[in-house]
Amino acid sequence: MINFEHVGLRYNVGPEVLSDITFTLEQGAFHFLSGPSGAGKTSLMKLLFLGHLPTRGVVSMFGQDVAAATRAQRMMIRQRIGVVFQDFRLLPHLSAFDNVALPLRIMGRKPHDIRNAVREILDWVGLADYMHTQPSLLSGGQQQRIAIARAVIGKPRLLLADEPTGNLDDAIGYRIMSLFEQLNRMGTTIVIATHNQQMMDHFNHPRLTLDKGHLTVLPPSPKAQLREAF
Amino acid sequence: MASAPNDMPLDKGDVGTRFVMLVVIMMTALATIALGGALIVGALRSTWVDAVTGNITIEIPASDGKGVVRTADTLSQEAATIAAALQKTKGVTSVHVLSRTDVQALVKPWLGSDAGTDDLPLPALLGVTIHNPDDKAVLADITKSVATTDAAAIVETHQTWVSDLRRFSLVLLLAAGAMASITIACCILSVAGAVQSRLSAHQGDIDLLHLMGATDNYIGSQFVRIVVKAVGTSALAGTGIGLALLKTGALIAGEIQSAVLPAHAWGFVDFLWFAALPALVTALCYGAARATVLRSLRVMP
Predict the structure, then answer these.
(1) What is the DSSP string of A20-61?
(2) What residue ranges define each of the domains in chain A, with the CATH number in brackets?
(3) In the structure, what pLDDT confidence band is assigned to residue B11 with cuts at 50, 70 and 90?
(4) The pLDDT of residue B234
(5) Is the separation of the CB atoms in B49 and B40 below 8 Å?
(6) Residue ranges of the domains in chain B?
């Protein structure tokens, strides 16, 4: 479904921040993306949500070479991707409801369908009572859940999340991870960038590890495998 | 049900939009005045040209050309002879001999009512109407016929006056058109500039919408919707102000009304022009905003 072949990325004339990245994400895969600060996690995420195009190599998503795709085709690809940004990027003048409804409005869904879907998803993330509240009046954790609701409401085929549990206490963080697993079981491919070793150990998923712009694909954490075995 | 809000806070309450609205109001008011001026000049030109086209004035000078001043009776007889000859000329619709009293009335505005014009050597005048003002043969026949009767008589077709009038009114129309065009261009440039600055101000929001898969048309339509609303209302207000100023001008002009500057009555077609102006300004600003937005969005990732 998503294929990177010898992908490199550099900003302007600077050095390559990602070098020779090659990996494949099959439909329904669930990967953690980890690595030290400055390793290139954000750059790889940007390539995944088409925030940037590769400076070399081939990125193919949903069967389409993104560099060769037209602007309209790239927009269609983006509609199939949900992104949870580390800084949430909620639109401050919109209510929680309207922030979550945004992807559906962009897809051109009918108002009635949007209303029902948004209510359902806000209920799912436990924020049904905050539907008409603006983000500035919500806590960091609540804002994060709004961002997650916005990312998943369009039933994306690929969900990218950058430190999605960073602002959440452990209980809510694990609950959100469980929600991601539910989505994954329904066929959504998920990539979660995280520093949270405990989280990676707890959930049994392979890891994409970046170091100085180079990628290594690792199997699920041995601790998690051990836990699974018992 | 309330409609979906704009994804970006593009409400018209901000300083940039208020500035554009103010510019559009002032410029549309000026364009309305220019349009009104053009319509008045156009109507006056028609009035003036219609008044003289097809009319020929024949002047029999008081002096016979040899320095001898003729009496009023002599001039009257000459005029009657010429009138009789012209009435038989093919293509002539009517011939009217102005009485001495009529001629005295004509010079009164220049000499004043107290001036004794009874003893003045005034010319005799004939007004001739011809069927086809473009028929040169009729004109030649008239000139020949008049010259045969009185060699000193002058045939005045008013062509120089008509030609000057046409040229002058054309200059006025072009000036009004240029003024309207410049003011509309100012509106368009203001809108394009304001849209450009709003795009910069909302760059982050636009990036986010793009990342969610929003097309350029989806994002662009939000900017354009605000522009159409703001420009549409401002253009209507500007036209209203322009019409009020024209009305004030008309009231002042009404006091200096004369045969040369008759009062202009606005007709249905005139109001159609005025109604079209805000629509035209809004449509052009819509086009400018849309082109600016789409051109800028196209170069974004």
Answers:
(1) EEEEEE-TT-EEEEE--TTSSHHHHHHHHTTSS--SEEEEEE
(2) 1-79+194-230 (3.40.50.300)
(3) low
(4) 95
(5) no
(6) 15-50+162-298, 54-157
CA-nearest residue to B3 within chain A is: A111
Mean pLDDT of chain B: 85
Q: Kindly state whether A73 is in contact with chain B, defined as any CB-CB distance less than 8 angstroms.
A: no
H-helix or E-strand containing A107?
helix A96-107
Residue A230 three-state SS = coil
**Shortest Cα distance from B230 to chain A (angstroms)?**
20
**Nearest CA-CA distance, residue A105 and chain B, Å:** 9
Question: A60 touching B, CB under 8 A?
Answer: no
Chain A CB contacts of B214 under 8 Å are 75, 106
pLDDT attached to residue B169: 87
Which residues of chain A does B207 touch, with a Cβ-Cβ cutoff of 8 Å?
Answer: 51
Spatial separation of the C-alpha atoms in residues A131 and B275, rounded to whole Å = 45
CA distance readout (Å), B122 to A89, B59, B102, B112: 93, 10, 11, 15
With 0-12 / 13-18 / 19 or more C-beta atoms within 10 angstroms meaning exposed / middle / buried, residue B65 is: exposed
The domain defined by B54-157 folds into Alpha-Beta Plaits (3.30.70)
List all residues 6 or more positions away from B1 whose beta carbon is below 8 Å from its beta carbon.
Answer: A111
Question: How many residue pairs from chains A and B have C-beta atoms closer than 8 A?
Answer: 56
| Smallest Cα distance from A174 to chain B, Å | 26
Nearest residue on chain A to B215, alpha-carbon basis: A75
DSSP type of residue A130: G
CB contact under 8 A, B4 and A111: yes
Read off the pTM.
0.74
ipTM for the complex shown: 0.86
Choose from A49, A64, A78 for mutation: most chain B CBs within 10 A. A78
pLDDT tens for each residue of A67-118: 999 988 999 999 999 999 988 899 998 999 999 999 999 999 999 999 999 9
